[in-house]
Amino acid sequence: MGFKNASLEKPKNIFLITYEELIKDTKIHVKRLEEFLGFPFMNHDEEEVDEIVKNCSFDILSSYAVNKSEDFPRLFQVPYNSFFRQGVVGDYKNYLDAKTIERIDALTRDKFHGAGVFPGGPYYDHVMRFKNASLEKPKIIFLITYEELIKDKKIHVKRLTEFLGFQFMNHEEEEVDEIVKNCSFDILSSYAVNKSEDFPSWFKVPYNSFFRQSAVGDYKNYLDAKTIERIDALTRD
User: Fold this and answer.
1) What is the rounded CA–CA span in Å between residue 57 and residue 60?
2) From CA 72, how far away is CA 80, in angstroms rounded?
3) For residue range 50-91, what is the model confidence (pLDDT) as tens digits?
4) Which residues contact 78 (CB under 8 A, 6 or more apart)?
5) pLDDT (0 to 100) of residue 215
6) Of the candidates 3, 22, 94, 204, which lies 20 to 30 Å from 194 by C-alpha distance?
7) What is the pLDDT of residue 198?
8) Which GO terms describe its biological process (predicted)?
9) pLDDT tens profile 166-216
10) By three-state DSSP, how is residue 15 classified?
11) CA dihedral 189, 194, 197, 201 (to 10 degrees)
12) How far apart are CA 91 and CA 157, in angstroms?
């Protein structure tokens, strides 16, 4: 948790990634690492990314003589070949018994309970920092909830316009209506790109996953009552 918290506090200085994340999509995280180091890949550099992924793969690295060796560095009495097992997620099951795994899982749940850990950091910290920042710097940060936007779209389109320094006149109500219409769920979800299963290189989530039902409370179709109750309790706390 020390490294996790430090990476959230100093994202420009500390790059944190789990083995599971790296295995799940190696290319995306190679690109993330390059951006962190200040050398982002261009679209035409895909072959270079593939080459890096290949040369840093388990099969290639484990084939080097030094990594097959039983020698070890002076500062760390562990042989080089002990760092290479199977190159798969879940290999610990071949080394630990069920009771030990259960105990470790319980300790992990206890340590992370209520932390709201997700790729961008603890969820509640994420939301509250933006909330507080929007109150401290209302001219720089515009914060709105989905529920507020759904309740009265026209009012919040006008608020956003004022935030950007452009105010609608009374006779421009038709323009406001046009913006609301063109930014509606029905219109946006009808575009080919938003029906696509493609995804941006930096975030492996397909575009079509951002469009569900356009209704407040749709989470009830995905979460059971016990999970909803727990989330509500965490949110109140």
Assistant:
1) 5
2) 6
3) 999 999 988 899 899 988 888 887 777 788 888 887 778 888
4) 72
5) 81
6) 22
7) 85
8) sulfation
9) 888 877 889 999 999 999 999 999 999 888 888 777 777 888 888 877 888
10) coil
11) -150
12) 52
**Contact call for residues 198 and 206 (beta carbons, < 8 A):** yes
In one-letter notation, the amino acid at residue 127 is: V
Task: Please give the Cα distance from 212 to 209 (Å, whole number).
Answer: 7
Alpha helices in the chain (DSSP H): 2-9, 19-24, 26-36, 46-55, 58-63, 65-68, 98-112, 123-136, 146-151, 153-163, 173-182, 185-190, 192-195, 225-236
Domains in the chain: boundaries: 2-89, 192-237
Tokens read off for 154: 């026209």
Both structure tokens of 7? 């990476």
- pLDDT of 158 > 80? The answer is yes
Among the ranges given (18-27, 73-82, 119-128), the one the predictor scored with the smallest mean pLDDT = 119-128
